[in-house]
Specification:
With 136 residues, the chain is mainly beta. It contains 2 helices and 11 strands; from the N terminus they run E-E-E-H-E-E-E-E-E-E-E-H-E.
């Protein structure tokens, strides 16, 4: 089991990602992710602890409005996206917010434009990481 820790620049959002998988890094080709320079990873069998204050995080929704894209309200760093699917919360993590981000493989580009909402939710359930939200 490997442990990856990180945060936004000012430390208001903290993340701890535990996984046993050989991680793949993805690059989403949508305009939002491209503008953020985001590089993603996730593990459906891993776990993420994400802690922040509700007033310290900026939640942004676009497209199908199925996920919250979380950025720090103070320093602006984008840490990843969280989706609530039923009782479960799942997350895809922007590895740029991790301390060891330089140890991840080069990202493989993926184009999800045109993906139906139900197909998107199914992909997230297969790939995204279960997350515990610790809102202070």
């Amino acid at each position: 089991m490997s442990r990856h820790e990180g945060s936004c620049h000012c430390g208001a959002i903290n993340v701890c990602f535990e996984t046993a998988a050989d991680l793949v890094t993805r690059e989403c080709l949508c305009s939002y992710c491209q503008r953020q320079g985001a590089r993603y990873t996730s593990d459906a069998n891993g776990h993420i602890d994400l802690s922040f204050t509700e007033d310290g995080v900026l939640r942004y929704r676009f497209g199908t409005a199925q996920a919250d894209f979380l950025s720090c309200r103070t320093c602006g760093v984008y840490v990843g996206a969280v989706a609530a699917l039923g009782e479960d919360h799942l997350m895809v993590l922007n590895i740029n917010s991790l301390e060891n981000h330089d140890q991840f493989p080069e990202p493989q580009p993926h184009d999800y434009d045109g993906e139906a909402a139900d197909a998107r939710a199914g992909r997230w359930q297969e790939r995204w990481t279960p997350v515990t939200l610790k809102i202070n």
